[in-house]
């Protein structure tokens, strides 16, 4: 899996170059020009050990690996019905606004169907502007790049070394390169080919 992750990064760098150095001179846009808003859940008091719960809130650990881990959830007590906008959906790009200094700004794509899992208050969903010239897979890989992670870390605040926070206003200022969509689509095709191999390694593909 680590080798396949490295392959995805290598494909990205070959096609687009380092996203901070931007050696190919792509146009750049702030996240605020691409994202209409960030959607988050709420802080919910969970009930430990309730394996028959109807709804589950995802933990920050569901995305810190860079892959969406649907088993990283906590049960929500009976009687609470989450708003429709809080449910996790296939295709979501999720972002961790609060974590340790090393993990704040972690992101993951939701690549499984989820009908009973909801966002927490520490995880945002990117809601794209109509006609935004980016594909979620491209933005996700950009956010994974080490130097971009460093830039995100620089936006984070917090006096404690164990927990940092990124505000929506600061994340909105982050600049990323915008290659032509046709080139992004080529990357996405290659990305999904590699991703299928990762799923196979993790036993997530039906056989």
3D structure, described in words:
With 207 residues, the chain is an alpha+beta fold. It is 29% helix and 19% strand. The protein has 5 helices and 11 strands. It has a 4-stranded antiparallel sheet, with helices on one face. The protein starts with a helix and ends in a 5-residue tail after the last helix.
Key terms:
207 residues; three-stranded mixed beta sheet; 5 helices; four-stranded antiparallel beta sheet; alpha+beta; globular; 11 strands
> Nearest-angstrom radius of gyration?
17 Å
How much of the residues is beta strand, in percent?
15-25%
Shape: globular
Read across the widest sheet, the strand sequence of neighbours is 2-9-5-7
Whole-Å distance between the termini? 19 Å
Number of H/I helices: 5
Quick overview:
The chain is α+β, with helices and mostly antiparallel strands and 207 residues long. It has helices at 2-16, 136-144, 146-155, 168-171, 181-202, and strands at 27-30, 35-40, 56-58, 73-75, 93-96, 98-99, 107-109, 117-118, 123-128, 164-165, 175-178.
